[in-house]
Amino acid sequence: MLSGKKVLVLGLAKSGKAAVELLSAVHATITVNEFALQEQIECYDEYIARGIEMIVGGHPDDLFERDFDFVVKNPGINYHKPFVLRLKERGIPVYTEIELAYRLSQPQNYIAITGTNGKTTTVTLIRDILKNAGRQVCLAGNVGTPLSELVLNEDLLHKSDYDVVLEMSNFQLLDIDAFHPRVATIINLTPDHLDYMASLEEYYTSKTRIYMNQDHNDIYLQNKDDVVLKEYLQKYPPKAKIISFSLEQEADCMIKNDAIYYQGQHIINLDDIKIVGRHNIQNMMIAICACIHSGIDVQSIHDTLAAFTGVEHRIEFVREYQGVKYYNDSKATNTDAAIIALKSFEKPVILLMGGHEKGLDLREMASYQKQISHLICFGEAGERFAKDMKCPNTDIVKYMKDAIIKAKELAKSGDVVLLSPSTSSYDEFSGYEERGNVFKHIVNKFE
Length: 447
Prior knowledge:
Elements: E1 6-10, H1 13-25, E2 29-34, H2 44-49, E3 53-56, E4 70-73, H3 82-89, E5 94-95, H4 97-104, E6 109-114, H5 119-132, E7 137-141, H6 147-153, E8 163-167, H7 170-174, E9 183-186, H8 200-207, E10 219-223, H9 227-235, E11 241-245, E12 253-256, E13 259-262, E14 265-269, H10 278-292, H11 298-307, E15 316-321, E16 324-328, H12 335-343, E17 349-354, H13 363-366, E18 372-378, H14 382-389, E19 394-396, H15 400-410, E20 416-419, H16 432-444
């Protein structure tokens, strides 16, 4: 298939390693370029023994003057980097590992979800509904498993007609070319990743790439409530059949008589939903639409929705200690996600907020002060967050663990302590998962 083709894998991490394994399986000639030093790369000796060329400790200019059939770029490497631009200038295709996996896999039923917030909950719901209905289903992408790894593990090089549910970040969408989902949606559009993208316009536009290869045989799920999204759908109209959902308006999937209906058919009463927040009703609507258009019956959809209790690190109840409830919302890596979390509680919370400084505007977040009884800011962005939030009851600490201890000192029975950092975690942690796990570990050790 790719036997003898020369491929450069830019950046290892999880997706790069998955790409290497998939390329090895189809007998490509692989060169890996990784910024880390040799002694920091566990698989270095193994790759060398397997005949994989390793160029590490930087990105030497002469590498990007060599001829490759194509490049697989780790989505974390900024596509504005001069060496990435040089490859594209020379006409060498640059893909993400999702594009690689898509091209090598047999045809599958792809359901692709993007948006600023709500992706992980939505794809988990879709996966659970399909799985409980007895379908052959796989979940991959930004949720943690690279699609290339899944293609190998499930032998999708040879098997077809699986339901493949993909959570896709804008980084993963930037370098797709042929990827073609049968069902796709952009859940919402709010500011994020301004430390990576050249502009907000560029960030929003990158999300529309999820449906660029769809045609009239496909389904695009439209959120009628998001005004920014409406603007971008007008700028870049989908060619797919539109199925709409809304919390507030008439739509294919909508709220009526305190229940979710799809095209007039009752799906589930709102009282039967266990997860908190109206945003989660919206996530369920997407799952309903995607699964109905994948041939799943309404009863199966209802039963899975009624049993669903949420996903890890997203407004996740951790523990009640001395009458105080602790919630882990580490996946809130932007202000819109944190606002959604604040609005999910009926009374003001003690909010833990901070982390890596990525330049997000806090003006809208600051308008929700009535939902915050006490603000504790931490990390690289802590001082700026404290200043811009203008909360009367504010403390600044250095690390997240200090913020947790401070919250424990302040909290009284009946209070809610919410970790909803509003930014990414890279000043202190490897990702939101580690941040959330550390939070849970500390809270669970209280005594």
